[in-house]
């Protein structure tokens, strides 16, 4: 993965001083190559609001919207105690398996908050080619992934529980596991859950050909 970083002047500085600082080498964009074990997907802020019937509405976001973080163009501001940075990310290689960690929890000095936004995602045929840098796209003949496992967090951050959805490769059926209980689950029900961690498997050439037949 390529990580592009650009330091930002302090927001309270006068505009002329900011412009002068941006000319310094310290404030120029830098790029580093980095390996990764999983991809963290940031959820948008999720205000819970009520409809005209005073019923709570749970916000939703498409998977591809939060994957845009890795398209090489989307910038996000990161703040430290003393400095602010703009960062953007671009994938340079796609492994056989990808792990997505959907960032539902944020922690401050007092408590942990959970973002309940539902991520809308397809179970199969997720193509990540557009998130690769142009020069390495040719080296990836297959960039399509299928979901094989989905970890869900239910409830409050401090009192919640976990469920796991697992694909049985031999039968193509999905199962839900919670503690020692195993039950069948329909694929369309998986997409309605508060997904937290997902494992995706890249298709092999023969699998892609079968899907296209």
From TrEMBL:
- Catalytic reaction annotation: Thiol-dependent hydrolysis of ester, thioester, amide, peptide and isopeptide bonds formed by the C-terminal Gly of ubiquitin (a 76-residue protein attached to proteins as an intracellular targeting signal)
- Which Gene3D superfamilies did the record assign? Cysteine proteinases (3.90.70.10)
Q: Does the keyword Hydrolase apply?
A: yes
Q: Which UniProt keywords apply?
A: Hydrolase
Q: Which GO terms describe its molecular function?
A: cysteine-type deubiquitinase activity
Q: In the Enzyme Commission scheme, what number(s) does this protein have?
A: 3.4.19.12
Matching PROSITE patterns: USP_3
Which GO BP terms, alphabetically? protein deubiquitination
- What protein name is recorded for this chain? ubiquitinyl hydrolase 1
Q: Where is the USP domain?
A: 1-203
Q: Which domain of life is it from?
A: Eukaryota
